[in-house]
Fold this protein.
Amino acid sequence: MADEQKPRKVGVYDSVTGAGSSGMNWMWIIIGLIVVAIVLYLLFR
């Protein structure tokens, strides 16, 4: 289990710092849109 988690943590850090592949950017964009949608829903419901 520990060996499987190490590459995952490194991948997360790389994507956050921008050192990861550019293919990870679309995931963060989608997460951002979902967060904005939830906030707008809570504010205007």
